[in-house]
Design goal:
Layout: H1 2-29, E1 32-42, E2 48-57, E3 67-70, E4 94-102, E5 105-106, E6 109-111, E7 119-122, E8 133-143, E9 146-147, E10 152-158, E11 168-176, E12 187-193, E13 206-210, E14 217-224, E15 229-237, H2 257-273, H3 294-302, E16 304-305, H4 307-319, E17 323-328, E18 331-336, H5 341-345, H6 349-358, E19 364-367, H7 373-398, E20 399-400, H8 403-422, H9 432-464, H10 472-495, H11 498-517, E21 520-521, H12 523-548, H13 558-561, H14 564-569, H15 575-582, E22 590-591
Parallel strand pairs: 1-11
Antiparallel strand pairs: 1-2, 2-8, 3-7, 4-5, 4-8, 6-7, 9-10, 10-15, 11-14, 12-15, 13-14, 16-22, 17-18, 18-19, 20-21
Helix pairs in contact: 2-8, 2-11, 3-4, 3-7, 4-6, 4-15, 6-7, 8-9, 8-11, 9-10, 9-11, 10-11
Length: 593
């Protein structure tokens, strides 16, 4: 019996010795990681700071593209469903590389993108790792690795990772918690093994806890075989670490300084330009301001050219005897009348232009409420011509737009944003530059479309209580472009960071919100606006009742006829003009500046 026990002990001793010799032979003749140490510090802001020190021996045959380290942040390495979410190609974990050194000297490195984001290549990728021993130090921070819970917080860290296809002679994992975490309430569960619970620790691999005077949680494993890793789960009572509701903005938060600088620029420009002149006391006027057509009066009073401006032009042409307006079944037929040259010579430039355009295809035409693209495009063409004439004749006289200040702000936006795109760091920055350019370019264009057209139209429709159907084409167009911009922003948030995407949104808001605030009326524009307000007051108090009883301009008394186009333009309640203007509500609207 004693002989049997002696033989069994001898056999076990020889087996262990042989296994140890095999490990030493690997270290002497084949590629092997002789030492791996990871020091993981949990910071009070719920991020991690990790320092890895890896000693590789004879790695030239395995690392033929420089040294490659797969950071343990991929879904493959964070596989355990007991401590992390279900498998996702992008699990939301992000790293920032702080330091990379080889044999005590700073080393060049390249980090992968997309699916290969965890991969870190150190050294020249076209040159294999030199034979002999190399010591690598990698230091980085980690976001979104902690798992906060109602009762306890958890850190799951798979130190070596399951992608290392080399034996590891010794692996050490040390976890340091903040002082606010009570040491007596910390629980730790180590594991050595392969991927999934079905790959347990192999025979000959040892695991032990190392005592530490500073209450650090340290585990040491020896003789890890290829694709075997040392991991630990550390948990502590919830509440010790405060998780910010806006912690997701922490990464790249410094980027917000750029739109803040742009905001400061516009604020200084706003103070430098000074406030707009205040309206004077309204004095009732019985006639419209001299030299201002109905569409011009609306342009100065509201800063817009829209369907109501078009209706006012048609009414003015009817009043001047240039065309005949006939109403039937909700439709309006316009017929060209033979008018004398003297009457046409008194028309405003926009009225002459529209008169020529209306009847370029024949002596009559018909308008009816329609939502088809062709009708909307045709009506928008008329309004565009009206706005073009009004801007040319009145824009510089009555408004100061300070376009140079806005243009400089837009230029500054691109000069700040595009270098940021080139320097962007994240999971996938492949399209950062192109996406950034298109978000800003298209965003500014779509934003101006909304400011110039859509918002004004939506303000007009509720007042008229109709015209919603006509708004659909423009709404869908803006929504389509807006959807593309949102898609690009989502891609940038996933590829770079949420802070980066929100920085671009802030850039857009700064330009689109400040631009209209810099528009001012000239002294002549303020004087004309006050006169228009006085005339509108006259129409509201004296003429509105008679206007409401009209059918078409030809039914009005001569003294009232000439006021109808201004009543339409200045939105004095007037049955005929309101009905006609509804036909054009879904068309383009242009805002001054």
């Amino acid at each position: 019996m004693r002989r049997f026990n002696f033989n069994w002990i001898a056999i076990s001793f020889l087996s262990v010795c042989c296994f140890g010799m095999g490990a030493r032979l690997d270290a002497a003749n084949g590629p092997v990681i002789t030492s791996f140490r990871a020091d993981v510090t949990v910071r009070k802001d719920a991020t991690l700071e990790v320092r890895e020190e890896v000693v590789v021996n004879n790695g030239s045959s395995y690392y033929n593209q420089g040294f490659r380290r797969d950071l343990p942040i991929s879904a493959t390495d964070r596989w355990d469903p007991r401590y992390v979410d279900s498998f996702k190609q992008d699990n939301g974990v992000r790293v920032d590389i702080l330091e990379v050194a080889e044999d005590g000297q700073p080393a060049r490195y390249e980090q992968g993108r997309g699916y290969f984001y965890p991969q870190l290549y150190i050294g020249d990728r076209s040159v294999p790792l030199d034979p002999g021993e190399h010591r690598f130090v990698i230091r980085y921070t980690v976001d979104s690795a902690l798992n906060p819970g109602a009762a306890k917080d958890t850190l799951y860290w798979n130190a070596v990772g399951n992608n290392v296809n080399l034996p590891v002679a010794e692996a050490v994992l040390a976890v340091y918690l903040p002082e606010v975490v009570p040491a007596e309430e910390v629980q730790a569960e180590p594991r050595v093994g392969g991927l999934r619970l079905t790959s347990p620790r192999l025979p000959g691999t040892a695991l032990e806890r190392v005592d530490d005077a500073n209450d650090a949680i340290i585990y040491r494993a020896t003789n890890l075989r290829p694709r075997q890793s040392l991991s630990v789960v550390v948990s502590w009572p919830a509440g010790a670490i405060q998780y910010s509701k806006f912690g997701f903005l922490r990464r790249d938060a410094w980027l917000f300084a750029a739109p803040a600088l742009l905001f400061t620029y516009y604020l200084i420009a706003w103070f430098w330009i000074g406030p707009d002149s205040k309206p004077a006391a309204i004095l009732t006027r019985y006639e419209p301001p001299d030299g201002l057509s109905p569409a011009a009066a609306r342009y100065i009073a509201t800063g817009t050219t829209d369907g109501r401006s078009f209706a006012a032009v048609i009414a003015q042409l009817a009043v001047r005897g240039c065309l005949l307006v006939e109403s039937a079944d909700g439709k309006y037929k316009l017929s060209r009348l033979i008018s004398d040259r003297a009457a046409e010579s008194t028309l405003a430039p926009e009225e002459k232009r529209i008169l020529a355009l209306l009847f370029e295809d024949g002596p009559s035409m018909e308008f009816a409420p329609a939502t088809d693209q062709r009708s909307s495009a045709q009506n928008s063409r008329y309004i565009s011509h009206i706005h073009e004439e009004l801007s040319k004749e009145l824009g510089a006289k009555y408004f100061t737009r300070h376009l140079g200040v806005v243009a400089l702000g837009v230029l500054g936006t691109f000069l700040m944003a595009l270098p940021m795109a080139l320097m962007a760091r994240g999971r996938d920055t492949t399209g950062a530059f192109l996406f950034t350019f298109w978000v800003l370019f298209c965003g500014l264009i779509v934003g101006m479309m909304i400011e110039v057209a859509t918002l004004s139209a939506f303000r007009t429709v509720p007042r008229a209580r109709s015209g919603w159907k006509q708004m659909f084409p423009a709404t869908w167009l803006v929504a389509g472009f807006g959807g593309i911009i949102v898609y690009l922003l989502v891609k940038l948030a996933a590829g770079v960071s949420i802070s980066y995407a929100l920085t671009l949104v802030a850039f857009l808001l700064m330009n689109l919100c400040w631009g209209p605030q810099l528009k001012r009326k000239t002294p002549l524009g303020r004087q004309a606006s006050d006169q228009i307000a006085g005339f509108r007051q006259f129409l509201l108090k004296v003429e509105q009742d008679r206007l409401d009883r009209l059918g078409v301009p030809g039914d009005a008394p001569e003294d009232l006829q000439r006021h109808i186009p201004y009543a339409i333009a200045l939105e004095v309640k007037e049955a005929w003009g309101d009905c006609l203007s509804q036909i054009f509500i879904g068309t383009a609207i242009y805002t001054e500046g």
